[in-house]
From TrEMBL:
Part of the ABC transporter complex GsiABCD involved in glutathione import. Probably responsible for the translocation of the substrate across the membrane. The lineage of its organism: Bacteria, Pseudomonadati, Pseudomonadota, Alphaproteobacteria, Rhodobacterales. InterPro entries: BP-dependent_transpt_permease (IPR050366), MetI-like (IPR000515), MetI-like_sf (IPR035906), OppC_N (IPR025966). This is Glutathione transport system permease protein GsiD. It comes from Pseudodonghicola flavimaris. SUPFAM superfamilies: MetI-like.
Length: 306
């Protein structure tokens, strides 16, 4: 039985009986095991530095990200034609690329966190309820299948046509596109949990649906759901940057990584750094998120541990 892993009181009682004394230490040191993976530790460090730079952008950015200058398309400082005050050079309007990267990463990460948070929460709730109430399962999952047929880019185009260009339509499109994936994953996990003996025992002793759902079903599914959401974050950031690259996201002169790459493609032949630098940062964010998510899955997934 897995009841010992669902409630602190049951864990304590089971430990006294000698039946589940090894479970808490294994979960208590998951972060230490995660850091033993050098690739995961490096990915977490890179993500932490990027997030820290985005949060501290107003204080560490050397220039205003929307400030124009006469130094147009200046190459990075390490090149022969570079200027020391512009470490990563300037874009086609003379704006400092480093400052725009700091502010742009803030907006890109914010879109990713909000989108995957909303989509993950709504989708997971739908999947869990679908597994908990078997009568709803066929109807709910058919609706999920319909949502799966709409790509995020198509949803973005439709929402922009209705709401206009902006960040809000992109967030809504990314959140809606995350709902069906999270719902299917959550339902698949919850179906296995619902077959466990402690669910039947809870129903037999008269526990309410709310108690069974929150105390036993949700607690046994939350770690696997969080693993999928962490893996989904990199995909959401990439799709969000793609939508901004197509002109569906933030409006100029707002700094956003996908839009910066799009604006730099006009100068790709004679000033490639304008498009390449934000594209590399997007690549680093997505790669770090995927590596960290894979490592988190290896640490928390009980099937892989077994």
């Amino acid at each position: 039985m897995t009841l010992a892993a669902t409630d602190p009181e049951e864990i304590t009682a089971a430990t006294e009986d000698g039946t589940a004394s090894a479970a808490p230490p294994a979960r208590a040191h998951w972060f230490r095991r995660l850091l033993r993976d050098r690739a995961a530790a490096l990915a977490l460090l890179v993500l932490a530095l990027i997030i820290l730079g985005a949060l501290l952008a107003p204080w560490i950015a050397p220039f205003d990200p929307a400030l124009n200058s006469r130094s147009v398309m200046t190459p990075p400082a390490w090149s022969a034609m570079g200027e020391s005050q512009y470490l990563l050079g300037t874009d086609g309007q003379g704006r400092d690329i480093l400052s725009r990267l700091l502010y742009g990463s803030r907006l890109t990460l914010l879109i990713g966190f909000i989108s995957v948070g909303l989509g993950g929460a709504i989708g997971s709730l739908i999947g869990l309820l679908s597994a908990f109430y078997a009568k709803l399962d066929p109807w709910v999952m058919r609706g999920v299948d319909i949502l799966l047929s709409f790509p995020a880019i198509l949803l973005g185009l439709a929402l922009v046509a209705v709401m206009g260009q902006g960040i809000v339509p992109v967030i809504i499109a990314l959140a809606v596109s995350s709902v069906p994936d999270c719902a299917r994953i959550a339902r698949g996990i919850a179906v296995g949990v619902m077959k466990q003996e402690f669910i039947e025992a809870g129903r037999a002793v008269g526990l309410s649906d709310l108690t069974l759902f929150s105390r036993y079903l949700l607690r046994n599914c939350i770690s696997s759901i969080m693993i999928f959401i962490s893996l989904r974050f990199g995909q959401v950031v990439l799709i969000g940057a793609t939508l901004s690259f197509l002109g569906l996201g933030a409006r100029p002169p707002t700094a956003e990584l996908g839009m910066m790459a799009s604006q730099g493609r006009e100068f790709l032949l004679f000033a490639p750094h304008i498009a390449v630098i934000p594209s590399v940062l997007i690549f680093v964010i997505v790669l770090s998120a995927n590596v960290a998510g894979d490592a988190l899955r290896d640490v928390l997934d009980p099937r892989l541990q077994a």
